[in-house]
Amino acid sequence: MPCPARPGLLACALLLACLASVKAQGLSPPWWVTWDFFQAALRSDRCLNVSELAPLPRKTEFRFNITVCADAPEDKLVGLATFLTVRYDFGGQLFSSKVLDSRGKAVRPMMVKDGEQAMKLAGAALQGNHYFERTAVSSPLPCIDFYWVIFKPEIAQIWIDNLADLYGNINLLAADLFARVFRLEQFGVRATTLKFKDMASQPEGQPSAYV
């Protein structure tokens, strides 16, 4: 009677099968993976429509559009344009995005002057997004402020033909996903899932606390 296969041998067989499939099909290029991140973050906002990623006529740039619904307030439009209008260079292959209003007109990003303004813009841009909780400020020392965008403690699962995962997925905390897509740290804002104490109850002039 044949002996049952060992778990280690089964795992090796599965890995070899995956590698053979990947070799035949090829890994997704980084611009498609980046677009998948945008989709995962933005599809939880019913006010937004993310278009397909498509090459421009000159074929050296892939672009997609983010169209915002007609009843979105102006600060949401400007916030989305500020954080989501991007242009990346993947070794000569360009990747870009534009934020459009409901009439198809491109919305101009704002020049952000400091972290506080960026935090307010991020809060406006994320209104209506399932993952978003709120914004907050913490002051661990006098005259030192940290600006935060707080997300629900949930996992976003994205398929990116990840060889380290049996199903090709990558699993990110919502805060990590939005930190990447919105480039929050470039604007002096941090993403977190920590639960801050009520800032409104903090006496004016006292450093705010978080847990």
Give a short summary of the structure:
The chain contains 5 helices and 10 strands, in the order ααβββαββαββββαβ. The chain has 211 residues and is of the alpha+beta class. It has one domain (31-192).
Count of domains: 1
Distance between the termini: 60 Å
Q: What would you call the structural class? A: alpha+beta
Describe the biggest sheet?
5 strands, mixed
Mean pLDDT: 83
Give a written overview of the molecule.
Keywords: Signal. This is Group-specific. Residues 1-24 form the signal peptide. It comes from Chlorella sorokiniana (Freshwater green alga). By secondary structure, the protein is of the alpha+beta class. It has one domain. It is built from five helices and ten strands; from the N terminus they run ααβββαββαββββαβ. The chain has helices at residues 7-25, 30-42, 74-84, 115-126, 174-181, and strands spanning 48-50, 54-55, 61-68, 87-90, 93-100, 132-141, 144-151, 155-159, 169-173, 189-192. The strands form three sheets. Strands 1, 2, 3, 4 and 5 form a five-stranded mixed sheet that branches. Strand 6 and strand 7 form a beta hairpin. Helix 2 (30-42) packs across helix 5 and helix 3 packs across helix 4 (115-126). The N and C termini lie far apart (60 Å). Residues 1-5, 10-25 and 198-211 have low confidence and may be disordered.
